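User: Before I run my own analysis I want an independent prediction to cross-check against. Here's the chain; please return only the structure tokens and, at the end, one sentence I can use as a sanity check.
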Amino acid sequence: MPIDAAKALAAEPRSGEISWDRKDVQLYHLGLGAGVPATDPDELRYTLESRLHVLPSFATVAGNGSPGVISGLSMPGVDVDLTRVLHGGQSLTLHRPIPVEGSATATGRIAAVYDKGKAAVLVMRTEVADADGPLWTNDAQIFVRGEGGWGGDRGPSTRLEPPAGEPDRTVERHVREDQALLYRLSGDWNPLHADPEFAKVAGFDRPILHGLCTYGMTLKAVVDTLLGGDVTRVRSYTTRFAGVVYPGETLRIRMWRQEGAVQVAVSAVERGDAPVLADTVVAHS
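Assistant: Structure tokens:
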């Protein structure tokens, strides 16, 4: 088995310096579809440097995501085929608002390895801090198909009870045909999102949208719709990637208000509301 759980968990963390500026933030926002309509004052907060704020999910790409999911797959004890890798889920905790420009130290490690039977799950944790202290913590849950079955811990269940009643708000967001090509300029160069031949080898008809692009689009919809456009209200954001999105499709984003949180479900309209994001919660002030 190419994953040695004990070795992976015992490996020394990897640290690296990261930095970002307003151009990186603007590019990320554009990759999520921000700026439509281009002169809308609410959209200018995502695109115009004099009004710029930072959507918290930018944390997943800041400094190109260093140490990064792909680099984490080369940690000691981990030797896997990239075509077998899927991003299974993402959790983000904000310790304070992300500045428009900054530099920080990112420290990454394998925090957990779970045996799901037909797959292994790696929890890759990245903690980021600058001179003023912690900024954010990212946990990426990475499924590696075909690498389970060694009798290890299955890990906790992340499934949530479906929210009761009709959603408080439902919005739809179109995914442009070129959106994955633009989003990948923020640092996720996995050819699964651009190369048709690679996508076929991985088992897809054509390139798929980055799960973290859907993740960011969804958070933007929640912030703009239920949080008054105030990005600083977001405290944490967790999701499970339940299905793929193809460029050109439409996301249907359903939101239910809860005490101090919004529970969200996202589906692909053109494929009969096929689930895309599930067990999704935005905790807020």
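Sanity check: The beta strands are 14-20, 85-94, 102-115, 119-130, 133-145, 169-174, 234-241, 250-258, 261-268, 274-284.
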